[in-house]
UniProtKB/TrEMBL annotation:
InterPro entries (UniProt xref): Methyltransf_25, SAM-dependent_MTases_sf
One GO MF term attached to the UniProt entry: methyltransferase activity
Source organism, top-level taxon: Bacteria
Species this chain originates from: Marinilabilia rubra
BP GO terms, sorted: methylation
Name this polypeptide is given: Methyltransferase domain-containing protein
Methyltransferase domain span: 37-133
UniProt cross-references to Pfam families, sorted A to Z: Methyltransf_25
Length: 243
């Protein structure tokens, strides 16, 4: 699997982000004593930042290697739990109105097969959220990618790794292939991967949120709270379950 192969180097590719933590804290009006679910937690970096601010966090990921690495970061205060779980099984795992917030960053959503599965995920989040709870989702701004036929994202490069990212298009815009080349500089090891993604456009995602029952939707072009533009690389959604 794609993420299993890069799990060992994931923290060098996607290090902890204080901007993400601050965005969540602002959207939820604080983190102290909040119960949060992170869908697609990777190696647990964001969950760790959230727990440091007083939140009780459950992180789930489909990849076992990611969860194994995440479990090494569980603090002594016990505010984090990690589970190997499909994000489509949220409503089977937890009771109604369990969480104050559900977070899904890192382009997790577009690894689902189709819009039917996206709707299934949103409905699961809706069910486990408390009234007034928020769902926060971040994906790539695929309107920008598709409209401009962009075939690459900026390379992530640091002293440990180089991570090259490309898009290969098929007919239509139902799916695109995400092709990556990870180079580990110390050993000069090269890992190549291809994974199929569902490039969800903003208007389609908005319709799915509305169909689920969410309200007070807001769209951002980054975690700084800036508005979405045609040049924005990320697409960030915030939506609330009605009180």
């Amino acid at each position: 699997m794609f993420y299993q192969s890069i799990a060992e180097y994931y923290d060098f590719i996607f290090p902890p982000s204080e901007k993400q933590r601050a965005f969540i804290e602002q959207e939820l009006s604080g983190l102290e004593r909040k119960t949060l679910l992170e869908a697609g937690c990777g190696t647990g970096n964001l969950a760790s930042l959230l727990s440091e601010k007083g939140a009780d966090v459950t992180g789930i990921d489909l990849d076992k290697e990611m969860i194994l690495k995440a479990k090494t970061k569980v603090p002594a205060n016990g505010r984090i739990t990690f589970e190997n779980l499909n994000i489509l099984e949220i409503d089977q795992r937890w009771a109604k109105e369990t969480f104050d917030g559900v977070v899904s960053f890192g382009n997790t959503l577009v690894h689902l097969k189709d819009k039917k599965q996206v709707l299934q995920f949103l409905k699961g989040c809706f069910m486990v959220l408390k009234p007034g709870g928020k769902l926060l989702v971040q994906i790539i701004n695929y309107d920008r990618i598709l409209d401009n036929e962009i075939n690459a994202l900026p390379t992530i490069d640091n002293e440990k790794i180089s991570f090259e990212r490309f898009y290969d298009y098929g007919p239509g815009d139902n799916h695109i292939d995400f092709r990556t080349i990870l180079t580990v500089k110390e050993s000069n090891t090269v890992m190549r991967n291809v994974v199929s993604l569902l490039p969800v456009r903003q208007k389609d995602l908005k319709c799915l949120f509305e169909e689920t029952g969410f309200e007070k939707m807001r769209v951002f072009g980054g975690f700084g709270g800036n508005g979405l533009t045609s040049d924005s690389i990320p697409l960030v959604f915030s939506a609330m379950k009605p009180v």
